[in-house]
User: Fold these one by one.
Assistant:
Number 1:
Amino acid sequence: MEYAEIANQVIQILNPASDFGLKVSASLTGHAIWDLLKKRFTKDAFAEAIREAEEKPSNKTNWDELKIRIQKALVEDEDFRKEIQKFLPKSSDISMEANVSGSGSVVVQNVGNSHININK
């Protein structure tokens, strides 16, 4: 899995404004990731990014900054990368099933924060 995708998944779990975050932010996974970040990164810009995202979760810029810091840590720190991946779903854990009938039916799966527009 690419570092950017790992960072995106972490932000989706932590950010209560994301659809997934609303469901998981109060869960053990969300709390465990926050704990890991706070214990591991106590100084410098990373700690500041954590604090700002926590104090002002509605500010998208704070989440973007935290995502950049997480991605940088993933690239530079193999131990952190292994630790954080324990909290993320494995690709084999994700499945999709669709029963579609009728003419002109469309099935779409959206992964991440991207937008999909379908015009007929």
Note: The helical segments are 3-14, 19-24, 28-40, 44-55, 60-76, 78-85.
Number 2:
Amino acid sequence: MATLSDDPVDKVQAALQHAYPAADDDLGPAYRSAYEHWFAQLTEGERWITVTVTVAYEKGRQDEAEKIAAQLPPAPRFPLP
């Protein structure tokens, strides 16, 4: 299982991977399994936060997405630099 991180950047990446699961095939099955498990454990409110994070990111507001994502529980550490 992937290492969990409290870094908002990792939380944004997990939210994006859930929204766009085929966005990067280089991540491998272990990370895919880890973020799916992470998302499954979120409350309904936290799941809505991931939607807000994704929308902010899509609008080019990465800083805002990270601030919002900071509210989420630790997420799997993103495996790519």
Note: The two ends are 18 Å apart (CA to CA).
Number 3:
Amino acid sequence: MLTDATSTIAVPSFRIAVDGREDTEGCALLALSAIHLCGTWLKSTELNVIGSSGTVVDVALEALSWDTGVAVQHWRAEDRGVIADCDLLLAVRRFSPDWDMLAHAERAGVGTIVAIQFPRLDDLSAAAFLGSVREAHDSAMLATRIEARLPGGSP
């Protein structure tokens, strides 16, 4: 925490980028619900939401920030540069892990958590995510996986 005579500014110690789309492929609300369940583990965490898809997601982000105190930054879908400054990329997808931000995260050495709700078995990249199907439907299970990656989180 930085302090001077006039103010105190919390410096985030952990930055999470999350797919903010709630559409035919992205499941932002489930991801945000899981992050919300992390509660006290979110201290000093900044949430970078990439490509928020509208009012419902924005309201969920406002509630998350209000309830947990997590700082929220909004980024356009094409703002790939934010990934390199993050510690974790989180995405819940409906059918496929095919999201260009995942490739950017891998190149930047950023850890990822990707859960696929209905992996297409004919798509080898999606089939590799069969173990994440339950997390893609159960926000509490996904929250446990996120907490394990947070500083001071549960093992």
Note: Helices lie at 28-37, 55-68, 100-108, 124-127, 139-149.
